[in-house]
Amino acid sequence: MIDLLKQEFFKLVHQKGILFSPLVLFGLMLFVGISSKNTGDLNYYITQSFAGGEWADVLLIIASANIVTMEFEHGTIKHMIAQHNNRFLIYFTKMIVVSAYCVVLHGFMFIFTIVVKYISYGSTHPFGAIYDNNQTVMQNLMTFLFSNLFSCLLIITIVFLIASLSRTSSIAAVVGLLFIFMGTPISNLLIHMVGNGSSIIKWNPGNMFNVAFQFLTPGTIHTSLLSDGELIIGNLIWAGLFIAIGYYAFKKKRI
Amino acid sequence: MSDILVFKNLTKQFGKHKVLDNLSFHIPKGHVVGLVGPNGSGKSTIMKCILGIYPYEQGALYFEGQKITSKNVNRMSSRTGALIESPSIYPFLTGMQHFKLYSATKADVADVVNLMGMGKYINSKVTRYSFGVKQKLGIALALINKPDLVILDEPMNGLDLMATLDLRKIITSEAQRGITFIVSSHILSELEKISDDIILINNGKMFFQTTMPELRGLGQRSYILTTNDNKAAKNLLLQHGFVVADNGSSIQIDNSARQLNDFLTLLIENHIELLDISHQGMDLETATLSYIKGSREAVHND
């Protein structure tokens, strides 16, 4: 497992796309920061990490799709299996490496939020000012970052599942993006149409992405119809299910 | 000489389709074994079974006398280097980074780079490599961790004349050091030059396993004879009980009873002038083609 982890990290850090992704993230956050200067609630942009969560999700989807499919596209999976003889270990190690990448991205998001805030807004809107939920801007930002980080568990497991079923990384990335960005609106629509709070429909995976918003905006509970605890449990159960199905698809993928 | 690998009645199915059908053969240690067969005959599947990529349904596989199962397949695959179908390389890495990825020691890397003559481009990204150089890197990766068994699937693909010659030398010299090779190739003339043994498979079944001297010996059972009067020579030999057939501008004489002196004496005594005599050549290509053709005809007749 240690060897596999070393190999996966080695491959990850030698990909230009991964190396430059923090720069891309910074550029996009800076763009949002500067273009939001003359809008109303600037603290909102700070606590939302200048849309860094959405950009990080996109980068994560691309990285997750690529890390699985590249082995099949380049035929390197044969070498990996011959060397390690354990497909679950290969699948799981890749998940660990992408998760680590996700944590690093969120670390960069935190640093970039501070930098972009000073570049865009100067010393106005201090991090210590009281904002939503009777908490400081900084506390709101931290809540956002941690809840977004938690929601990435579902993103990674879903994209790994799609990538295990797809032939190319681009298909996996596009389907992953559609699923993740359309999942919540479609889920909200379904819940609204069914209109029954106790309905099983509120446990659909699309609704689980509300975990990224509900901690920061408690009012989201009126849309998700699930408590914070239920959302966490739902996320963990779906993630477990996606890992199981994804691994099955990965194991059965023709080499 | 002991066998490094033994297949015993091995069967592998994809759904209902049998890709390997009750296959049995053995790979002698330190030999270069040519695996021959048409596309889809099961060559790559055999190689993937050895590497533990595919499990198998029935039969057994032995590596150095030990039965290999899904639980101990690592015992075999960890001592096997392979190039299967295409080189296992990442486009974002350099050649040298591939060796680092697989934890090769500096001394081993230096040895294999020198052996493959890759010094000039080892630090370039593999996207800059030509197909032949990628193939070389794939072979180098198969050799890097000092394996006991090396599997090379179509290793001559994309190699130019000099690189093919180099590869032939490398395989021969490594085999002399005790490494066993299983090589599949459609370039049968090249395979013939490096192989000690030949295994011919078709439709997942084994047709034959033989050594190269034995295979060549098959062709020495008849002679091709050209005389100043082939018709008279043929009639004369037939009258004296020889098995003779027309062979274009010459005649073919069966020599399984080893009667060379007898029929030569007979022809000379009857004043038939000998213009040329040779063994009927049985090379790998002829053998392969005749067996595969025979098999198709048998299927067709059924």
UniProtKB/TrEMBL annotation, chain A:
Under Pfam families, the record lists: ABC2_membrane_4
Q: Give a Gene Ontology cellular component term annotated to this protein.
A: plasma membrane
Q: Which domain of life is it from?
A: Bacteria
User: Care to name a GO molecular-function term for this sequence?
Assistant: ABC-type transporter activity
Give TM segment ranges. Answer: 12-34, 46-68, 88-121, 141-163, 170-191, 231-250
* Entry keywords, A to Z: Membrane, Transmembrane, Transmembrane helix
| Record bears the keyword Cell inner membrane | no
Descriptive protein name: ABC transporter permease
Q: Organism, per UniProt? A: Lentilactobacillus kefiri DSM 20587 = JCM 5818
Specify the taxonomic lineage.
Bacteria, Bacillati, Bacillota, Bacilli, Lactobacillales
UniProtKB/TrEMBL annotation, chain B:
Tell me which residues make up the ABC transporter domain. Answer: 5-228
Entry's transmembrane regions:
none
> Coiled-coil segments, which residues?
none
Molecular functions per Gene Ontology: ATP binding; ATP hydrolysis activity
Q: List, alphabetically, the Pfam families matched.
A: ABC_tran
Keywords for this protein: ATP-binding, Nucleotide-binding, Transport
- Gene3D superfamilies given for it? P-loop containing nucleotide triphosphate hydrolases (3.40.50.300)
Query: Any keyword Secreted?
Result: no
List the PANTHER family hit by this protein, alphabetically. ABC TRANSPORTER, ATP-BINDING PROTEIN
The entry assigns this protein to a family as follows: Belongs to the ABC transporter superfamily.
| Protein name listed in UniProt | Mutacin ABC transporter, ATP-binding protein MutF family protein
